[in-house]
């Protein structure tokens, strides 16, 4: 006995999704065919549409359906500031803080030599070009405070400073609401070194 | 700032997959657009094809691309035996044991009154019709040995026996290779009650 080939093909294709193994791919395929054919058809349409329409912003590299994204084409934004983030989700988090009115550059990842992710994969040339437009005066590095994010920030910083650009990094320290007892020692050590006059 | 609508639509559609919440849907959408557009296109094709082609076997109710599935149309199978399983995956497990040469009926679920899953959802009428074809002499209930599977087996058994059909159930007992010390008490109790002369 074999599964019908359309179902096998569907289960195989579902495995292209990150975090989906053979068992869950089969479960998903059965679920869609048994309980949610409308959802399956909708997902099929969504995939086709996204593949066709979603591209990268010519300026900031984020996902957009236009040549230049909404943020980059917003005349209200401060064009002298460029904030570098790893992902569109990170950009969204910063937007939600309402503390930043400049523009962005989205790396779509971070350096990870062991995984073969180098400067080209995080679009370093495009970032250097973007930051060298003569209007940007400061680049704010807002990559994650993980090992990879820190290494990425360091690498970008060296490259941009070599071109005479002013580069800053989000401050590290004890999180707002953080109780020292529950904050890790590395964070406290960093907060001590970076302490500010009050 | 907003995500482009094609991406939002894709993330929304991915949530139709079982076990996929908003965070992983977004991660999947980003992953496909950034790293695997070919996979996205392939999944789109697979979904469209499955929605179009996959149907239920007129005889056994499993998924198939034909009116009647491969197993049901195989002349080598013993048409007097009908094994009732919950899912195509369960059927596959039984096929792999090479111990059964009869036909199947796939419920595509189990009774679960609390979830609103009743006799109609497990295609009881279709099963009764199938089992009453005058050729089937024994129905083997191979639903899971969970509460729902047991209740489903009981319900089906009552219905088929009322129509004069012979009904059996897979044996319960200590699993092959099972050490009594590590087998739960309920299983041992059942194995004791069902003990067989040697
Ligand atoms: Zn942009
Ligand atoms: Zn069949």
UniProtKB/TrEMBL annotation, chains A, B:
C4-type Zn finger ranges: 57-72
The record's listing under Pfam families reads: RecR_C (PF21175), RecR_HhH (PF21176), RecR_ZnF (PF02132), Toprim_4 (PF13662)
Q: Which residues form a coiled coil?
A: none
Determine the domain of life of the protein's source: Bacteria
Residue ranges of domain Toprim in the record? 80-175
* Keywords from the UniProt entry: DNA damage, DNA recombination, DNA repair, Metal-binding, Zinc, Zinc-finger
* Function (record text): May play a role in DNA repair. It seems to be involved in an RecBC-independent recombinational process of DNA repair. It may act with RecF and RecO.
PANTHER family xrefs = RECOMBINATION PROTEIN RECR
Q: Which family does it belong to?
A: Belongs to the RecR family.
* HAMAP family noted in UniProt: RecR
- In Swiss-Prot or TrEMBL terms, this protein is called Recombination protein RecR
UniProt source species: Keguizhuia sedimenti
Starting at the broadest rank, the lineage of the source organism is:
Bacteria, Pseudomonadati, Pseudomonadota, Betaproteobacteria, Burkholderiales
């Amino acid at each position: 006995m074999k599964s019908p080939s359309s179902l096998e093909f569907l289960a195989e294709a579902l495995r292209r999704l990150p975090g989906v193994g053979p068992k869950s791919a089969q479960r998903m395929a059965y679920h869609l065919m048994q309980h949610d054919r409308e959802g399956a058809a909708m997902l099929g349409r969504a995939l086709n549409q996204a593949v066709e329409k979603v591209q990268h912003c010519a300026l900031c590299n984020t996902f957009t359906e236009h040549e230049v994204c909404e943020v980059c084409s917003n005349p209200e934004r401060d064009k002298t500031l460029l904030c570098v983030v790893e992902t569109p989700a990170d950009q969204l988090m910063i937007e939600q803080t309402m503390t930043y009115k400049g523009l962005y550059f989205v790396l779509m990842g971070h350096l990870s030599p062991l995984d073969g992710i180098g400067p080209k994969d995080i679009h370093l040339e495009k970032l250097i070009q973007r930051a060298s437009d003569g209007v940007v005066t400061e680049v704010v590095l807002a990559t994650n405070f993980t090992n990879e994010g820190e290494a990425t920030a360091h690498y970008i910083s060296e490259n941009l400073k070599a071109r005479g650009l002013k580069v800053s990094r989000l401050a590290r320290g004890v999180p707002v609401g953080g109780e020292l007892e529950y904050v890790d020692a590395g964070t406290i050590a960093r907060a001590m070194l970076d302490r500010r006059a009050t």
